[in-house]
Structures are given as structure tokens and as C-alpha cells.
Amino acid sequence: MLIGESRVECLAVHRVGNPARDEGLQLSERTAVVNDEVSSLILDGYLKGIVSDKKKFQFFHDTDLNLNEVYHYSRQFFRGELGFLELSQRLARHLYARSQHPNISAGDVLVILFSGLSDAHSTQRALGVFKAEIRDDFLKVIESESVFDLQHVSGINPRLIDKGALILEQDSTVYAVDRLGQQAKFWLEDFLHARRVPDVQSSSQMMTRVLEQLSGDIADPVQQGRFKDEFLALCRRDEEVSAHELSAVAERFVEPASVGEAFDSAAQSYGFALDEQARFPAHSMARRLERSLCKVGIGHGLSLLLPPDMSLQAVNAERASDGELTLTLTLFPQSPD
């Protein structure tokens, strides 16, 4: 998405509290006045900071996408059925209704209409929804004749997005940010109701996490070492590997039900389910697995960090009469093929 020719067309600001703490909702009765300086800050901060493939999500609903409130309101606006101020007020009311968690802070909500966004095919508009929960402190220099004084001021830093969304006109894509969302993921899950759009990097990270979890579930250190060796051999053999191929290897060491549970757990953390036909660059995946699967538990509370070119063949433990423990490890170099 190219944003170099983008412009700020309209802006409205509302203040959204937390109803669980008896904080109110204050709706502006008109749109805000935006001069060139403010417009430049918004474009360079909010818009530039949110357009990234790593922040790409899609609206969804369990039964009908049109029942997703944010998606529905934005479609009404883009079709000309809803005015901008009314749209911004509906979004603020919806956000207020979803702000029930005790960890959700009050904040100022900026609803912004952008124009001039483009891709390879067309130019389109987009709606930005940004919630500023933290105000930054600044020092302002005040000049009066030949005297300079300092005054404390606080304000919103548009280059530091607390919560944000950019809703595109032409499809269900939404770019989203929730910098403070570790404790209460309401912005993505309750307000936007959006799921991450998987890319190669996030899918590879998710696959690596699943395999790392499964490796840790293997009690036998030799089998755990072979688990790593099998995956590295697969990734070194082909240019690409699929999630299905990696899962099939995992199921030779771990029960299929456990493999499914690991994928389900990762899907909850990453916000998307991994398609079994998803494909990964094999050499890149091999490098990830070399780092993540190098740790092998050898019992007795000990772990071994194996170089990628070494394979664990056997672990023998002998305990002497005085309690002294001797571990003998048998290692073999792996073939570069």
C-alpha cells in the first residue's frame, strides 16, 4: 500500500471512558479543524506507522461479516449512506460498549478519513481509528520580550500509536495496532473483531513455535534429537516445505492429538489458523529450527545444546555407590546432505 500521495480529508475526536469505572462517553458535535501542520503530523505519524504487512488483519464474524459492527459502519460510510460525523460517533459508542475490562484505560479517539492511498491497481480512501491512552509530557518555551520561561504541556504523540486501525475502502482488510494489549486484547478481539492475515514470516514463526513445543514434550533425549534431525533433513532436501509435511514428520514422534493441540494453542496466540498447505522457504525454516531445536533434555535436570551438524545417538547414565552420576553421550556428525 502506497501512502505518499495521501491526504487527511476529515477528522473527529471523541473521548471514550471505561463504563466499568463509571467513566463517561463524550461525543464531539462537529468535526475538528485540521491545518497543514496537524495534517502533516497525522500522515507522518498515524498513517505511516500503521501501514505494514505485519499489521494486516481481516474483519470477520462467526455467521455474517455484515454483523461485524466496525465493518458494517465503514461500508455504510463508503457507500454514502452515513455521514462522517455520524460514523465517528457510532464507532465511539461501539468502542465504549466494548470497554468493560478493568484494565482498559480512558482515552481520546481520533477518527480520520484519508484519501489518496494506492496500490498497483487503484486509488482508494481509508478510515483511521486511533485511540490515545497515554499523554506525553513536554516543555514549552515561552518568549516574552527578552525573557524566556518554560511551561509544562501534555499532548498526544502521533508517532507512538497506542491502539489503531486503518480500514480500507475496497475490501475487508484492516491494518491494526494494539501496543498496550497484552492484558486486555479487546481492541482486536472485541472492538474490531479481526484476525491476522498470515504472511510467510508470521506463519514460519508459528510453525517453529509448534515444533519447539512438541520437541519439549518428547521425554526420550535420543528421540528428541532424532526429531530435530528429521526436520533439518527435510528442510535441507527441498526448496520449500509445507505445513502438512512438517506435521507428518511430527506425528512420527508425537501423538496426532498432541500435534493438533499445539497448533490450536499457537493459533490462539498468533490470531490465525495455519493452513496445512502453507509453504515455507526450506533453508530459512532450517535456520529457524537449528536455533529453536538445538536444546535437548538429557534427564536429571540437564539439557544439551547440540550444534546443527551433530546428532545425539545415545545417552547412558551410571550412578556410583557414593551417588556420583556419570553421563556418557554418543554423538555423530551429520551428513551435510
Automatic annotation (TrEMBL):
GO CC annotation: nucleoid
Cross-referenced InterPro entries: Nucleoid_associated_NdpA
Q: Which Pfam families match?
A: NA37
Protein name (database record): Nucleoid associated protein NdpA
